[in-house]
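Why do we care about 3D structure at all? Because function follows from shape, and shape follows, mostly, from sequence. That is the central idea of this module. The next example makes it concrete: a single protein chain, its amino acid sequence, and then its structure expressed as tokens.
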Amino acid sequence: MSSQELVTLNVGGKIFTTRCSTIKQFPASRLTRMLDGKDQEFKMVGGQIFVDRDGVLFSFILDFLRTQQLLLPTDFSDYLRLQREAVFYELDPLVDLLNQEHLLQPRPALVEVHFLSRNTQAFFRVFSSCSKTIAMLTGRITVFIEQSSAPTWSSSSFPPQTILLPLPPQRPSYHDLVFQCGSDSSTDNQTGLRYVSIKPDNRKLANGTNVLGLLIDTLLMEGFRLVCTRIVSPEDKTECYSFERMQRPEALAMNKTVKQEATITPEQSQKKK
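And the structure:
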């Protein structure tokens, strides 16, 4: 068969159509011998090559042949059966990846929200085990600070206007961010009031409890679940909200460094002699 020709496989009753070049990704595999007609266990039936193996697991094997990466669903648990299929098809690179089962297991992404309400101010600190979650929240959260506009000669008879200066939350590290809302109770006026907005909600909120509720809703919509709440510091009554989400494992790519056999040229062989 030409490498660009299509081939149809019937694996345990499931039909797969792909290019011959995909099946022949690994010349030493049993699948390559199957297409070359050198393995008598595989028979052509009605224009399809019948393979008496698990068709569901073969879908993961075919995806690996197409991408040279192994990415399994979060709830996948049939590692031993998939490894058995990889051994049957003599796909050694896939067998090696499945030996790293601990890397394929989904791991929880953790988030902690520390919330402190003091007089008319509220302080937030968000920790996460996943830097991508912090980056996502940083892109959604905007802090607006009230500032008085500078008066001009034409507006000297009018009271100064206030503008809202947008600022991103502070990121002390890749795994946490800090912001606050409300007003400083030490000032007599409302200048310097801080608002918080969290996309896609366009409201600008100054009340800490409202901001906390919006932040929790954002995390829940991102697939996190609230695990527990507790008081971190009894002195200042800092509240802690812990969240958890099962994150999908990263795709494992095979090592494409192939050890090639050493070839000796006739000139080299003569030198050795």
